Amino acid sequence: MGSSSLATAVAAGALGLANLIVGTSLIPSLLGRGAPFVPTASTKIEALFGKKGLLVAGSERSLLPHGTHPAHLRLVDLGSGDGSLLRAATRTAAYGHAAGYEINPWLVAYARLVSAGRSTKEVTHWTSMWEASLDEADVVLIYGVPPIMEGLGKKLAAELRPGAIVVCNGYELPEHALGHPVAEVFIETSRWSSDASSNLFCYRR
Description:
This protein is an alpha/beta fold. The chain has helices at residues 3-30, 42-49, 84-92, 105-114, 146-159, 175-178; strands at residues 74-78, 97-102, 122-126, 139-142, 165-169, 183-187, 198-204.
């Protein structure tokens, strides 16, 4: 096979895999049970778990209670995609445990591969976010879309323990779920990013 044919085959394979990933993510969204996969922008990851992050113990703008020991924190990402937020939580912010719930098997396989050898800290469950157990979560992350925010609000209000923190990327929860946000932080992203500039809406149970 010539180099041009090989390149064409690789490109076609990559395009086919991308279509599978996007298509599998779109189905729950079209059914009103999930959101399409959008990689979280690096500026938003930095805003959450960077040196001055909202979810970093000891940060000057941290939402975590004073004196929180990160090794004791349990994070849940509802619709965890490629697992980038799970990795940032444990590797950058030193969280003790981060669990993701993702329905797309291709993304689950990728997240598990990248987290190989860290299964006690980074866990990606191949199941719907509606099946996630939130009663022990200290922090919950959501990148939702408007049709599912009402249902997520009910789930959070019913399952979260007092003091738990919720951060929503782009869309607010209904007011009756967890009340008004305790913080709204606008994060600008690259013009080329599929994760558009938006607010991070932060709540406390």
